[in-house]
Amino acid sequence: MNKQIAISAFAGLVIVLALIATTSLSENQASAETTPFPSREKVISVVGVATTSVEPDLLVITFGVENQEKLARDALFANSESMTSIVDAIQSLGISEDEISTSRISIYPIYDNYRDPVTEKYTQELIGYRVTNTISVETSQLGKAADIIDGAVSSGANRVDNVSFTLSPQKQLDVKDDLLGKAVLNAKKKAENALTPLNHKIIGVKAVSLSEFGMPPPTPVFSTSGAFAEDTSFKSSTPVFSSDQDITTTASVIFLIGSN
């Protein structure tokens, strides 16, 4: 008798649990059906631009000595003598040793090609060695550009490869920080102007992409196509002046928007 009662009670419990599970499932389905599908976020993508005109604060001059001798040691010695005179002349103008660096030094053989009249074959004959020694001057003393060129050429430099004005690393960093902030603000202003007639507003930021800060090429003010060893009368008699550089950076911003 007790065994039958226990079985009946267990069966009843199973039925009750089944009813509860069914009811819970029905309620969850009903809840899922009544919950609205979340709307997609609204965004606007804008590219902000910032431009500034910057006065260069770094002068870069590249020049050197190129000479040729029959023996390699003679070419090296003559080149070294000339370069020593050039460096001394530049330092006498107030340019420190830290502002002078070697850009390139090379030595290579020079051959004369001719055709043997007997064998009618082309033959190479070693006729000497050419040594090229190039140095760079990087200084904040922009007003000394002409004097540095004159002093170098007068002391033996027979090539001036480049004279340009650019920005020092610290000034580049300062300009970059300032321009990025202005580019983001410009993007925000563009977005606000576009949203006003649409009766929408900015409610957040989804993403920001900053462009790599790129310096424009240094402003060249003087350059030669190569050596001018034969023209020993060369003088940069005209003063050399720097000019401002226009620098631009951009920032792409995706704003979250909503209706007013």
Secondary-structure map with pairings?
Blueprint: H1 2-34, E1 42-54, E2 58-69, H2 72-91, E3 100-115, E4 122-139, H3 145-154, E5 159-166, H4 169-195, E6 200-210, E7 219-222, E8 245-259
Antiparallel strand pairs: 1-8, 2-4, 2-5, 3-4, 5-7, 6-8
Helix pairs in contact: 2-3
Structure description:
This protein is of the alpha+beta class. Among the domains are: 1-37; 59-163 and 222-228, Alpha-Beta Plaits, CATH 3.30.70.2970. Helices cover 35% and strands 37% of the residues. It has four helices and eight strands, in the order αββαββαβαβββ. It has helices at 2-34, 72-91, 145-154, 169-195; strands at 42-54, 58-69, 100-115, 122-139, 159-166, 200-210, 219-222, 245-259. The strands form two sheets. A five-stranded antiparallel beta sheet has the order 3-4-2-5-7, with helices on one face. Strands 1-8-6 form a three-stranded antiparallel beta sheet. Strand 3 and strand 4 (122-139) form a beta hairpin. Helix 2 packs antiparallel against helix 3.
CATH domain fold name of the domain at 59-163 and 222-228: Alpha-Beta Plaits
Biggest sheet character:
5 strands, antiparallel
**Helical run tally:** 4
Alpha carbon gyration radius: 39 Å
Strand-and-helix sequence, N→C?
HEEHEEHEHEEE
Residue share in β-strands: 35-45%
Please state the overall shape, judged from the principal axes of the Cα atoms. elongated
The helix fraction, in percent, is: 25-40%
Q: Structural class of the secondary elements?
A: alpha+beta
Distance between the termini: 75 Å
Unreliable residue stretches? 5-26, 28-38, 223-227, 229-234
- In CATH terms, what is the architecture of the domain at 59-163 and 222-228? 2-Layer Sandwich
Cross-sheet strand order for the largest sheet? 3-4-2-5-7
What is the total tally of β strands? 8
CATH first level of the domain at 59-163 and 222-228: Alpha Beta
Determine the mean pLDDT.
Answer: 80
Question: What is the CATH superfamily of the domain at 59-163 and 222-228?
Answer: Protein of unknown function (DUF541), domain 2
